[in-house]
Specification:
Layout lengths: L2 H33 L9 H8 L1 H35 L4 H9 L6 H7 L1 H11 L6 H22 L3 H10 L4 H12 L1 H17 L2 H5 L5 H9 L3 H35 L1
């Protein structure tokens, strides 16, 4: 084994160790603080309190429902639009990209203030429920979801696939749902995970619009019970990590089944 190869492995090991410490140390600190008992010892009281607190339970359910609604809205809005633009009006690709990336350049406070009248109408039609936040969250995740879906669409020949399906009598919705969507599934799955992670951690919109989602509940709880608040923060991070692993295994299983056919 040459000296350069040994040096490369050493540098790689040091980088991995540095990344592990950088990401794991805050999590260990959260776990330590949430289980520490004044005067010594450990207790899981803060963690069990998460389930006993009805406000926290309701906030968790609200955030999960919002994440699901956001993913559905993002897929229904973005995928057919991007496929249609690529097939019918490719000259509008830059315009769609610009519109999807625009939320990155506008501060969240400006979006909230600018959409206040829209929310007046949403509350009129849907009632004063936290679920109306899904409309803003769909806009919020567009820049990230667009990149993931666009990369998958660029990897396949959408025009050839759609023309082949159309020549066999398939309608446009059949082409999108049964031909294009299965081929860009990894990108859609990545966009879905990014959307879920953003919604579970989004605080500004919910706080300014006076809705109690999981991040807002954690901040409010931190003012009265810091240990339970830290336990809730760590639980939300672990949930997102577990969700990432499940989605990865799901995608790997789908690829294995596709390759076996």
């Amino acid at each position: 084994m040459t000296a350069s190869r040994v040096l490369g492995r050493l540098v790689r090991g040091l980088l991995i160790a540095a990344f592990a410490v950088f990401f794991l140390l805050p999590l260990v600190a959260l776990l330590d603080f949430s289980t520490k008992v004044r005067g010594g010892g450990r207790s899981g009281e803060a963690w069990t309190g998460l389930l006993d607190d009805p406000t926290m339970s309701q906030a968790i359910v609200t955030s999960l429902v919002l994440a699901a609604l956001t993913v559905v809205g993002m897929v229904v809005l973005l995928v057919p639009t991007m496929v249609w633009v690529r097939l019918r009006v490719p000259g509008a690709t830059r315009l769609v990209e610009f519109l999807c990336l625009l939320p990155l350049t506008i501060p969240a406070l400006v979006i909230v203030v600018g959409s206040s009248n829209v929310y007046t109408w949403l509350r009129y039609f849907f009632g004063d429920t936290s679920l109306v936040l899904a409309f803003s969250y769909v806009v919020l995740v567009l820049p990230y979801a667009y990149r993931a879906v666009d990369a998958s669409l660029s990897a396949i020949d959408v025009r050839t696939l759609s023309e082949a399906a159309r020549s066999l009598g398939a309608g446009w919705w059949t082409v999108i749902a049964r031909i294009v969507l299965p081929n860009i599934w990894p990108g859609v799955l990545g966009a879905a995970f990014i959307s879920i992670a953003l919604v579970l951690g989004e605080y500004t919109f919910a706080s300014l619009l006076n809705y109690e989602t999981l991040p807002v509940a954690i901040v409010l709880l931190g003012k009265s019970d810091a240990q339970t608040s830290m336990a809730a923060a760590l639980a939300s991070i672990l949930f997102a990590a577990v969700l990432l692993l499940l989605l990865s295994f799901f995608d790997r299983g789908r690829r294995t089944m596709s390759g076996g056919k």
